[in-house]
From TrEMBL:
Region (Disordered): 764-788
Species per Swiss-Prot/TrEMBL record: Leptospira yanagawae serovar Saopaulo str. Sao Paulo = ATCC 700523
Keyword Cell wall biogenesis/degradation: no
Coiled-coil parts of chain: none
SUPFAM superfamilies, sorted: HD-domain/PDEase-like
Domain HD intervals: 560-709
TM spans (from-to): 30-49, 323-345, 357-376, 388-408, 413-429, 435-450, 462-480, 502-527
Protein name from the UniProt record: HDIG domain protein
PANTHER family in UniProt: CYCLIC-DI-AMP PHOSPHODIESTERASE PGPH (PTHR36442:SF1)
Sorted UniProt keywords: Membrane, Transmembrane, Transmembrane helix
Top-rank lineage group of the source organism: Bacteria
Length: 788
């Protein structure tokens, strides 16, 4: 069973890590991107899809006056024309229209001034005739008949009778200009006080004036209403300051009579109604808005007319998917994917050139998108109060995704994916800016820290880091939104603290941070096994010399084993100085020659350990070359069976590249006739390749040749090593073996210095140690001398 399982997993690994043409991988990427685009758009568009209708018919479960059997919540935001609200606004507009009145200023001249002049002329005649007593005056001037004797006497006692007309006219003019005196009592007095009055002035240049409603006074209130009388008396005292109190009272009373007798204002109901209709028509149609996730009615509540209207409107929009919003989300996702795509093409063009990497990234992204869908169902569920305490972004495992991708790949790729995911969280959170900042900052920090996960303790540190970042952003969001962190209820500090929002969001940040770090630890072994990716922990496992292949290499080809570790020392130092993945280089070197295990005795370093009959005839150059080439092919096959990562397997063929086996090729040309040389194919004496496709494998190619050549040095010195290293590198350059590796001239100089440093320390001359018997002889000689 185990053999079957291992064989199956080997086949899966081969399929996933198989080297495919870039065009094929790009086509697969297009399909994955399209599926992701559809999936994300669907998840984010769910609030804009329709929902099931509710029965609001007279006999239905949700008809007006009945008890709601269940809670109804709107799944999307929409607005509708609200006739009740429109009618209410029209009524408000009408009630704010000033009442229309007409004021005829001609009354002053034709009525008040004329009658006042007649009455004062009679008074003048009576004074001349010596009949100036109150009784006679009231008999001769009927309009003064209701005045008291004291008021008439005050008039008679005033010596400057010629000024009386001016006093009374001045007072009546003031009342006439400031107030609107109407004949009838007004049934709409309260409404008039709120709306005010619009006065159309007849007989003046100022055609229209707006006054307060309390300045429109029915004439019956001039004498009866205490406040009105007090105001008019105060007006008289202010405008006639040099008049005695008794005369002032008489003048005001007589003036009020003329005003009472000739009210100049008349209510204009036609003009008022026309203005109201015009104001009502100017009111725009009012709309009401139902928010996404708004509860229309709760189970057990009575369905009021207002609730029924909302239910009817929700039914109206239930079957209408908001196409504009869905298209907007789709286009936004397209733009984001294009941005991420251009970013990756610009900075990490070769990172996604294999199927396994694409599947890892898209599969993990789909997991997070699915979690967004499920979390939104819970977070925005009916009767859920989570949004009042938490932010949606606090629940999404963005940190898990970016921590994983940052660790497996690099921070540039992880940040790009995190950028896309942050906007998905932004849309899913109903465009909440704090949720976006949570997702984006967590994505950036976890991507950067993912490359620094070197030990198991680093996962714990990652949990604390993500927690700290989320607490900072959430605190900023609380301050920006004006939310309360802590409210004292008098139940005690500890109980208030545990019930506070501060405690809840802190706990949630801890849960999200450490759950993300823990999830990465759980997913890593699974991804490593299925996709066979060379993570740091996977490489550490492979670097264990107890690995079965390395143990076979040690027992069957010990000299190759020694050679391997020497090449590893050279390559790792160069990789370290070039800031490359030195652990990958070391493990790659460990397995680069495992193909020599089946025919270990053929290779020169192991011949002294193998019996002579087992040696392959080296006098047959073609057969010998095939055996050497087979060690590359055998090594690849053995590595695949052992499920080594593709990045490790690449060291096996690429450390030889397509270089020519000069020894056997030269021997083949030398040992056959000149006529037969035409039948020799040089490709039969060349390694199958490919040439080194990375700096790491190119370093190993140079180190492998250098280590073997360094054994033949007669003298080890800095100069001899410089010459040897230069010779090896130049030979690789001459065969164009480093063309596709990405190594620069500067890189080669660093490699030369690194190799020289290692070789000087390992090939240095050691002093000869003395024989034990020589040491004893010297001891004896010294002992005899001391006795003398």
């Amino acid at each position: 069973m185990k053999a079957i399982f291992d064989s199956s997993m080997t086949s899966v690994t081969d399929f996933l890590t198989k080297v495919r043409p870039v065009s094929v991988v790009r086509n697969i990427q297009i399909i994955l991107v399209f599926l992701t685009l559809l999936f994300v758009t669907y998840v984010l568009s769910i609030p804009f899809f329709g929902q099931s209708k509710v029965d609001t018919d007279p006999e239905g479960l949700f008809s007006e006056g009945k008890i709601a059997p269940e809670t109804i919540q709107s799944v999307k935001e929409f607005s509708y024309e609200d006739s009740d609200k429109t009618n209410l606004e029209k009524q408000k507009a009408k009630s704010n229209v000033p009442y229309a009145f007409d004021k005829d200023f001609g009354v002053l001249a034709s009525g008040i001034d004329t009658n006042l002049s007649e009455d004062l002329e009679i008074l003048r005649i009576l004074v001349q005739e010596g009949k100036s007593n109150p009784t006679t005056v009231k008999d001769r001037i009927p309009r003064w008949r209701n005045r008291t004797n004291d008021e008439i006497q005050a008039i008679l006692d005033y010596p400057k009778k010629e000024k009386l007309k001016n006093f009374i006219q001045q007072y009546t003019n003031l009342i006439f200009s400031k107030y609107c005196i109407v004949k009838e009592d007004l049934s709409f007095a309260k409404e008039l006080d709120k709306a005010g009055a619009k006065i159309r002035n007849i007989g003046t240049q100022d055609h229209t004036t707006i006054i307060d409603g309390n300045l429109v006074i029915p004439r019956s209130q001039i004498y009866k209403d205490g406040p009105v009388t007090a105001v008019l008396s105060k007006l008289a005292s202010e405008k006639l300051p040099n008049v005695s109190e008794s005369l002032l009272k008489a003048v005001s009373r007589i003036g009020l009579y003329y005003v009472y007798s000739y009210p100049a204002c008349n209510y204009n109901p036609e003009e008022t109604e026309n203005s109201r209709i015009k104001a009502a028509n100017a009111v725009s149609v009012q709309k009401s808005r139902i928010q996404a996730n708004e509860i229309i009615v709760r189970a057990g509540d009575v369905i009021t007319p207002e609730v029924k209207l909302k239910l009817d409107m929700m039914n109206l929009y239930a079957t209408r998917a908001n196409l504009a919003s869905i298209v907007s989300i789709f286009l936004t996702q397209c733009v984001l994917i294009v941005i991420v795509g251009f970013y990756l093409i610009r900075y990490r063009p070769n990172r996604l050139n294999d199927l396994s990497s694409n599947l890892i990234i898209f599969f993990t992204l789909w997991i997070v998108i699915a979690s967004i869908y499920l979390l939104s169902k819970v977070f925005y569920a009916t009767d859920s109060d989570l949004s009042g305490v938490y932010y949606f972004g606090m629940f999404v495992p963005v940190g898990m995704l970016c921590l994983l991708l940052g660790f497996v790949y690099d921070e540039q790729l992880s940040i790009a994916i995190g950028f896309f995911l942050a906007f998905a969280v932004f849309f899913a959170s109903r465009y909440n800016p704090t949720s976006f900042m949570l997702a984006f900052t967590v994505a950036v920090m976890s991507s950067i820290y993912g490359r620094r996960l070197l030990k198991r303790i680093d996962f714990l540190k990652a949990g604390f880091l993500l927690t700290f970042v989320q607490i900072l952003v959430t605190t900023a969001g609380y301050l920006f939104d004006g939310r309360e962190f802590y409210v004292s209820s008098g139940a005690g500090f500890f109980k208030d603290l545990t019930n506070s929002n501060l405690f809840r969001i802190t706990v949630m940040c801890f849960v999200n941070g450490f759950a993300s770090a823990t999830a990465v630890q759980l997913l890593l072994p699974l991804y490593e096994y299925i996709f066979n990716i060379p993570t740091r922990f996977k490489l550490i496992e492979l670097a264990d010399t107890g690995h079965p292949l390395l143990q076979q290499l040690l027992t069957k080809a010990p000299s190759t084993y020694t050679h391997t570790f020497m090449v590893a020392a050279l390559s790792e130092r160069a990789a370290q100085n070039l800031n490359l993945d030195r652990l990958l280089v070391r493990v790659g070197v460990y397995f680069h020659d495992i193909g020599k295990i089946p025919n270990a005795g053929f290779f020169v370093e192991n011949q002294h350990l193998i019996p002579k009959p087992e040696h392959i005839d080296k006098n047959n150059p073609a057969l010998a070359a095939k055996t050497v080439i087979d060690h590359v092919l055998d090594g690849i096959e053995m590595a695949k069976k052992a499920r080594l990562p593709r990045e490790i397997i690449s060291f096996i063929p690429e450390h030889h590249g397509t270089s020519t086996m000069a020894f056997f090729y030269h021997k083949a040309l030398q040992e056959i006739s000149s006529s037969a040389r035409k039948n020799i194919n040089k490709k039969d004496f060349q390694y199958p390749g490919p040439k080194p496709q990375s700096k790491e494998t190119a370093i190993v190619m140079i180190a492998d040749s250098l280590e073997a050549a360094s054994r033949s040095l007669d003298e080890v010195s800095p100069e001899s090593l410089d010459d040897l290293i230069r010779k090896i590198i130049n030979s690789k350059l001459a065969e164009n073996q480093l063309d596709e590796s990405g190594l620069t001239i500067g890189d080669l100089e660093i490699i030369k210095a690194s190799f020289k440093e290692v070789l000087l320390s390992s090939l240095h001359q050691r002093p000869k140690y003395p024989k034990p018997e020589d040491t004893k002889a010297l001891e004896s000689a010294n002992s005899k001398k001391s006795k003398r």
